Amino acid sequence: MSIAWPTALSGAFSDRRGLVMGVLKVFLAIAALPVVLTPLYAVVPPVSTLMLWSAITFQGMERDWVSFDEIAPVMVNSVIMSEDGRFCQHNGVDWQQLNLVLDSKKGPSRGASTIPMQTVKNLFLWQSRSYIRKGLEIPLAYYADFVLSKRRIMTIYLNIAEWGPGLFGVEAASRRYFNKSAKDLTPRQAALLTAALPNPILRNPAKPTRAMQSRARTIEQLARQAGGYNDCL
């Protein structure tokens, strides 16, 4: 004996199924964006999620895209030696450093993020720290490192990094804080900009605290020893 479902109940079930399928399609479309966009970013200057958020919330968005050759080598060396010393050796993720941080009781931190991981985070993910975000960074970093050259990843990173409220990229930061182009940065200025990266909202490279000055001196010394650490660029 068959049971006839009331028309209203059947319609409600159909509507709910349609809603679920719609949400699923939107989720899959969002998830596919990094896969589609990353190859385009080999030639197209990208915009990060933080830049978009800054623009739509009327905080402003200042950035002047520059090529790799328009950035002082000492700036590149400062970032590599401070942020990701094995940038030229790994394939997007430095498991040696990542395992040390993931095993820490303090949870994931900036210290575990390679430059490719920071780049994909800035491009596609959110800023707050969590194991979920870190888990998403890993496959995206591998993918970016596979699709893009190390030189392009570094170029993107330095052009989308935040250096103040609404201030993005090394060129805009150089002009704001030191009134010069990124290609003309001195070793000290490059070190101060790098020292500001972990907390760019509170750290002003033009008015460094004693702690920032101390960190900058260390970065400046490390940058002079870059040598083979930057041979992939």
UniProtKB/TrEMBL annotation:
Keywords: Cell inner membrane, Cell membrane, Cell shape, Cell wall biogenesis/degradation, Glycosyltransferase, Membrane, Peptidoglycan synthesis, Transferase, Transmembrane, Transmembrane helix. It catalyses: [GlcNAc-(1->4)-Mur2Ac(oyl-L-Ala-gamma-D-Glu-L-Lys-D-Ala-D-Ala)](n)-di-trans,octa-cis-undecaprenyl diphosphate + beta-D-GlcNAc-(1->4)-Mur2Ac(oyl-L-Ala-gamma-D-Glu-L-Lys-D-Ala-D-Ala)-di-trans,octa-cis-undecaprenyl diphosphate = [GlcNAc-(1->4)-Mur2Ac(oyl-L-Ala-gamma-D-Glu-L-Lys-D-Ala-D-Ala)](n+1)-di-trans,octa-cis-undecaprenyl diphosphate + di-trans,octa-cis-undecaprenyl diphosphate + H(+). The keyword Cell division does not apply. Coiled coil: none annotated. It is found in: Cell inner membrane. The keyword Plastid does not apply. Its main location: membrane. The chain crosses the membrane at residues 20-44. One of its GO terms (biological process) is regulation of cell shape. Its EC number is 2.4.99.28. It holds the Pfam family Transgly. InterPro entries: Glyco_trans_51 (IPR001264), Lysozyme-like_dom_sf (IPR023346), PBP_transglycosylase (IPR036950), Pep_trsgly (IPR011812). Belongs to the glycosyltransferase 51 family. This is Biosynthetic peptidoglycan transglycosylase. The gene is mtgA.
